[in-house]
Design goal:
It contains 6 helices and 16 strands. It has about 240 residues and is an alpha/beta fold. It is globular and about 50 Å long. A 6-stranded mixed β-sheet has the order 5-7-10-9-11-15. Strands 3-16-8-4-6 form a 5-stranded mixed β-sheet, with helices on one face. It has a 3-stranded antiparallel β-sheet with strand order 12-14-13.
Length: about 240
């Protein structure tokens, strides 16, 4: 589950890991697209001066491995993996799914920006594979699926529904038709990816937190106007 402290949400599953810094911002934290707001959010999580590294987020499925010498923005990727201490991996969202991953023993972390395009092209599995390349073991990995639009609010056209049926099968927890309307649960699709890759169910924190339903707490691409829109961030890293 997610618990809120000082305008930042944290996963109870990840909170007990020694040396791990992680969390998700909220609307009251300010629009994280502004660098000053992003740094203020990090200061709520740690007293250490930890640089932020983010991907370009182009709605693809590419993953980059980064360290302290990497640029602060990585072109062409939607996911990052690191085994370096004292940097924070950062993901920006407003309805898309933020996924935070960690192997506590290998001290390897990852962030994933899982929009529908990245999800249907298996970006979370790609991130897990890069973690495994560095020495992570799926059964040790813990995952937090952060605030995102839920199936309650996410209706999609038949063409998109068909792509998910081809990628994930007819799992009604992921894609289902209600009357003439297709509803998609992108969070459940990413949870399915984690399970298929060997992450155990008790190592996945995936609370139902819909950014569209809870637009007073989070930003929502679908619900906000151009005047009220912004982004939250998810961050993770070891000190």
């Amino acid at each position: 589950m997610l618990i809120s402290t000082n305008d930042v949400y944290q996963s109870t599953l990840l909170s007990g890991i020694p040396g791990l810094v992680h969390g998700y911002s909220t609307r009251s934290s300010g629009d994280a697209r502004e660098a000053g707001n992003a740094r203020a959010i990090v200061r709520r999580l740690t007293d250490k001066d930890m640089p932020l590294v983010r991907g370009q987020q182009i709605h693809g499925n590419a993953i980059a491995v980064v360290d302290a010498s990497s640029p602060r923005s990585i072109s062409g990727v939607d996911g990052l993996v690191s085994q370096s201490a004292d940097i924070l991996l950062e993901v920006h969202v407003a309805d898309c799914v933020p996924v935070l991953l960690v192997d506590p023993e290998a001290r390897i972390v990852s962030v994933v920006h899982a929009g529908w395009k990245g999800t249907v092209s298996h970006i979370t599995r790609n991130a897990l594979n890069r973690m495994i390349d560095l020495g992570a073991i799926p059964s040790r990995i813990r995952a937090s699926i952060g605030p995102h639009i839920g199936r309650c609010c996410y209706t999609v056209p038949e063409e998109r529904a068909t792509q998910f049926l081809l990628a994930f099968g007819s799992d009604s927890n992921i894609i289902a038709k209600e009357g003439n309307t297709w509803r998609l649960d992108v969070g459940s699709a990413n949870r399915s990816e984690l399970l298929q890759a060997g992450v155990t169910p008790d190592h996945i924190d995936s609370p139902v937190v819909c950014t569209s339903c809870q637009v007073d707490t989070f930003y929502s691409y679908r619900k906000d106007s151009s005047e009220t829109f912004g982004e939250i961030i998810g961050v993770i890293g070891f000190t």
